[in-house]
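User: Sequence in, structure out. Go.
Assistant: Echoing your sequence, followed by the structure tokens.
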Amino acid sequence: MEGNEKKTILTYEGLKKLEDEREELIVVKRKEIAKKIQEAREQGDLSENAEYDAAKDEQRDIEARIIEIEKILKNAEVIDEDEVDLNKINIGCKVKILDCEYNEELSYKIVGSTEANSLMGKISNESPVGKALIGAGVGDTVSVETQNGQIQYKVLEIARSN
């Protein structure tokens, strides 16, 4: 299984965010949880100690997240957004598209799946819209299959995200 793990595509921003989260978990959260466990132990009987159980659960979650982040970072492929070819849509670029049905302009940053956050305008290259847009150029129209049928988007602009 080791060799065929999926590469995680990240922008520098996404890489930094994961590294910062890992650092916070290791440096701050581990100490906080160790203190909570110690305080719960000092209360005596651990068999009926809800604080102890909650702290141990939190500790397990923290350690699992650290392992998850380290696995992502180990398999990360970082996209240099300064070297993105602006002739075609790719990960690491910003796009402005037109929803042909509603005549509405939308702007997105195309990112790897771990960075996707639709509320912040970041869509994954693996999402239906992201997949359809990858490789398209300005002036191209792409079709996306959704629950409500086909949606057409026209590519208006491709720009660097930074």
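User: And one key feature?
Assistant: The longest strand covers residues 149-160.
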